[in-house]
Amino acid sequence: xSKLTVTIDHKKxxxxxxxxxxxxxxxxxxxxxxxxxxxLLEPFGACRLCVVxxxxxxxxxxxxxxxxxxxxxxxxxxxxVEVNRRTSMNLLLSDHPLDCQHCVANMDCDLQSxxxxxxxxxxxxxxERRAYDxxxxxxxxxxxxxxxxxxxxxxxxxxxxxxxQAISFGYRGFASKITTPFDLPIWDSTCESCxxxxxxxxxxxxxxxxxxxxxxxxGETRTTCPYCGxxxxxxxxTRNGEIVGARGDRENSVNEGHTCVKGRYGWEYVQHPDxxxxxxxxxxxxxxxxxxxxxxxxxxxWDFVETDWxxxxxxxxxxxxxxxxxxxxxxxxxxxxxxxxxxxxxxxNKLARQVIGTNSIDHCARL
Amino acid sequence: xxxxxxxxxxxxMSNSMDDIAANAAAFFxxxxxxxxxxxxxxxxxxxxxxxxxxxxxxxxxxxIDITDLATVxxxxxAGSDTALINGLMxxxxxxxxxxKSFIAERTVDFEAFKEVIQDYPPEKVSEITxxxxxxxxxxAEIMGTSQPMAVMWAxxxxxxxxxxxxxxxxxxxxxxxxxxxxxxxxxxxxxxQNNVQGACDLGGLPNVFPGYQKVTSEEVxxxxxxxxxxxxxxxxxxxxxxxxxxxxxxxxxxxxxxxxDPVMSxxxxxxxxxxxxxxxxxxxxxxxxxxxxxxxxxxxPGSSFAEKTGTFTNTERRVQMVRQAINPVGDSRxxxxxxxxLAKRIIxxxxxxxxxxxxxxxxxxxxxxxxMAEIAALTPQYSGISHKRLENGxxxxxxxxxxxxxxxxxxxxxxxxxxxxxxxxxxxIPPAESPDKDYPYIxxxxxxxxxxxxxxxxxxxxxxxxxxGEALVEVNPEDADNLGINGENAIRxxxxxxxxxxxxxxxxxxxxGMVYANFHFPDASANxxxxxxxxxxxxxxEYKVTAVKVEKI
Lengths: 367, 553
Ligand code: SF4
Ligand code: SF4
Known about the structure:
The complex is a heterodimer of chains A (about 375) and B (about 550).
Chain A: E1 3-8, E2 11-16, H1 21-27, E3 53-54, E4 73-75, H2 79-94, H3 110-118, E5 141-143, H4 153-161, E6 168-170, E7 177-179, H5 196-200, E8 206-208, H6 209-214, E9 219-224, E10 233-239, E11 242-248, H7 261-265, E12 280-282, H8 283-286, E13 304-306, H9 309-327, E14 332-335, H10 342-356, E15 361-362
Chain B: H1 2-8, H2 17-23, E1 26-30, H3 34-37, H4 39-52, E2 55-59, E3 72-74, H5 81-94, H6 100-106, E4 107-108, H7 110-117, H8 122-129, H9 133-145, E5 149-153, H10 155-158, H11 163-176, E6 187-189, H12 196-201, E7 208-209, E8 213-214, H13 218-228, H14 240-243, E9 254-258, H15 262-265, H16 269-278, E10 281-286, E11 298-301, E12 310-313, E13 318-322, H17 335-349, H18 368-378, H19 387-391, E14 396-397, E15 421-422, E16 441-446, H20 462-467, E17 472-475, H21 477-483, E18 490-495, E19 499-506, E20 514-518, E21 546-552
Parallel strand pairs in B: 1-2, 1-5, 2-3, 4-15, 5-6, 9-10, 10-11, 16-20, 17-19
Antiparallel strand pairs in B: 7-8, 12-13, 13-14, 16-21, 17-20, 18-19, 18-21
The complex binds iron/sulfur cluster (2 copies).
């Protein structure tokens, strides 16, 4: 790919042809504030925060939608740019609730951080406020459109990435809002709860209900989704040794940050109270009785009792060794698991074949 | 995937998901509800259709979600897939769309195959499948003119008594069109559970050691005997659908079940329950007290994916890291630790059986990276895979031949694993079960977007239960009318094998004469109704076609 050279804030930089001015700034490590841009989405030019001055250009073009050309000289923080950005930000905020302390996105809000960068800390214009009810119809995320800045990222995420077109821009002027067909609650739309729109929302207009419950996370682990064979990369969000959220891993090329409802919202089972926390063994085994004597499965003999690992593994090892030596290796069947790790499947195979000596091992791929 | 292995020498998905999404001019999806079962891949396909105009042919009796975007939707009768595929190939041949040079250079047995296909003219195929003749023509036209075309399928095509034959028929089709070994083409079985691919790759099958090395080969046995200090007998072991019924025959005495719930996920639930109850010793290693736990003598609490580090292999043969995010819950332990601990205790009881002198005989693994090193030493496809490379961010799709090889995103480039691709003449056979006067409906089973498999995990997520909290059986509005059911009324489904009470969801997703049930909920699991007649080669039970009667209750 051929390269071209531009100058950004007096810094010369080489960039691949086809880059936008915003790409060039990112390559030069020059920060340009944006609210409606995402590298995965088509440029949109709605928030007008990425305006720059380009020598020889009229007005203030938006960096996200202007292609870089050879020899371009760009200024990202000239006085004109600064004033212009502040005005755009003031307009955005004139209609935005400012009770940040009570907001679920507090400290994790693009609008907040961009406003701080631009230098707007209060609301000079007190415009008329839009008033909407919060739509909580979706079990996983809520929609609080009073906080919406109409950047359109959710609409584009749903269209360009999810291919679903569940939401779109509706109405005009002051009444503009992101809406479902016929303005129905989101749960009555074609939304598939993939959460991509929530992920991209720069404010708390779209928020995960779990984040309301748990607060912000303090740790992150990149891993792979436990549900289907697509194998999306996930980032598990943790706090105090517990999972409090999950999102798609943008660095994983399988899904580039995308997920379905199960990957994004299906992690709760990990910490469900039903988890078995101690090894369990039937009472008759602890008493050294024969199973054939346990005729009534409701009797005490068949009670599942908690025990320690040593006890349960010794009982199990003894039984397996005895059955192998009495009835032969092929009298023991192994079902390995399509949910478990590769390394664990290998060990099940080694246990069956090497330690017991049977090829009777299978799993549920057939199923 | 026995069918593919017969034709090509390898049963795995041949192409990569991003490659297919970017390069296929057409998709042929048969027996896969892709947007609900493999949702993120489904979105990639949707984008390819919406944004770059790729064509889509869907063959599915149901009007599943993705059919909204289909250029052609073929609603073949349940159980008539082979006839449909053969019929399409008839038309491809008639129009001369076959790739003659591919057939000549890379395949064998074309003539015998072609002869069988002559038995499938459109009128006859239309009669068997109830797909209109014009639609057959339309589909064949797209297949012949939009190249490359990728074929995708899932359990919908393999869970038939003739699943293996269906797969071979699709393999024939892709050879006929010259769609193998190229970007945007290929045969692409979509794996259900997250690590089915890995379980198959690493010896979780009764006929092969890790890496599909046959247990019936003396050379392979020698290799493992040398590595482990002990091999097995030169004979194929029992499949799951054999080992369980063998309890009642007195031939299976113990079952060790890792992270599976056969009571929920296997057909003919009643029969399974009886066998598990009769078994002398049942070991269950699980994170929940599943339905199967009722029959377990011991329950070893394993850890979930979030509590351990290792790898999964996805449907496109890509090995990926799983990393520990939290401590094991309670006293649970990662499954690999439990298995090695147990192995050591069994060996200690009979040390003479297994001298631990061979290079990979031992069971002292400090971590899963060490296990992966052993896998790499013994599994040709995984030779070049290590946790270190994965941690460096490398994209590794097997086969990865050595540390310097960068993996294989597309299989069968230039040559098939087995040399030449073999055309297999495949005839249509009617399904084992067909509807009659007493059981007039065809029931098909599968999954829904919000749930997963036996529902062990998803039924324990509050939001998911709010979204889809009970078993619903899809019934066509016309049938609902005749049966006097409307809205979400209670119904009873009865097959020759069992009966469940559940609720109807009246929807035209299913055609008249068909009902669709899932197996995510224990009180109304569709597997109470299914039967265990097996595909003779792959031993996959017949789930997709069960005759039932439907009553309002
Ligand atoms: S959750 Fe996904 S499907 Fe639903 S509106 Fe957002 S992006 Fe669209
Ligand atoms: S996020 Fe959804 S599509 Fe991706 S692996 Fe998980 S279950 Fe599959």
